[in-house]
Design goal:
Layout (H helix, E strand, L loop, with lengths): L12 E4 L9 H28 L6 H18 L2 H10 L3 E3 H34 L4 H4 L2 H19 L1 H7 L8 E2 L6 H5 L7 H34 L4 H9 L2 H23 L5 H26 L1 H18 L1
Parallel strand pairs: 1-3
Antiparallel strand pairs: 1-2
Helix pairs in contact: 1-2, 1-3, 1-12, 2-4, 2-12, 4-6, 4-9, 4-11, 9-10, 11-12, 12-13
Subcellular location: Cell membrane; Membrane
InterPro entries: GPCR_Rhodpsn (IPR000276), GPCR_Rhodpsn_7TM (IPR017452), Olfact_rcpt (IPR000725), OR51/52/56-like (IPR050402)
Keywords: Cell membrane, G-protein coupled receptor, Membrane, Olfaction, Receptor, Sensory transduction, Transducer, Transmembrane, Transmembrane helix
Length: about 325
Amino acid sequence: MLANNITSTHPVTFLLMGIPGLEHLHIWISIPFCSAYTLAMLGNCTLLFIIRVDAALHEPMYLFLAMLAAIDLVLSSSTLPKMLALFWFRDQEINFHACLVQMFFLHSFAIMESAMLLAMAFDRYVAICKPLHYTTILTKPLIIKIGLAAVTRAVTLMTPLPFLLRRFHYCRGTVIAHCYCEHMAVVRLACGDTRFNNIYGIAVAMFIVVLDLLFVILSYVFILRAVLQLASQEARYKAFGTCVSHIGAILSTYTPVVISSVLHRVARRAAPHVHILFANFYLLFPPMVNPIIYGVKTKQIREWVLGLFLRKDVKGG
């Protein structure tokens, strides 16, 4: 009823469809979604806590990791609670302005995550290629500036979108064929000339993914060259071993993006739920696995977590 209450420019509310064609499986689908969200919350909060309380972890690499964990928390929390309400209680309605806010946070923090992976690549480049200057180059003021630059870039690029969407009439209905308010899913409901929105959305996505990934690859070209110049094989393994966690985070973040992009172009006639499931996978997978990757591969964090559990066992005994 509310969904049909239209003002002069936009609907009061939208209706989120969820996963089209799989509505009867929403309860079952919610189980892995809820599990992934719980793991993401626990893992990233644990990382932030450990980095905060352990002074030995107040180094550039871990400060960037703390930023990544905070970004992952907001990224997953911007969509998952509403998504679970949709799956569990069929709470499909979302206020128009709340939809725009969700869209802004979703896309902004996805851009920040890409920027933070690039910053972490720069950190590994300095650590391996310029080890004697590591502490003088990556100072805390520079780290703060990098963090602010990541936020500024994301906010600057995404701020126009809500204002652009507010100017449209929505005569193509109010049902969003998605689990959350994704930019292009909202644009499809708008009437009028939406070419600028389409071009702007694609241009920003390509700019972020291509540019950031290009600089990440370039960093690793220099890193690989520096590693191969080391005298012993043991030194090479040790140096490159410090990059394994970051490479894992890159793969967990960009692989779903690339797969989803390829599917949109190669499998255009695929059922809608295939594309939506991959889009959800991008939101769920990186926040869930990044803490696990760094927890397993980073000695200081692994020892801290193991020590925490061992202390609990001793007290319990």
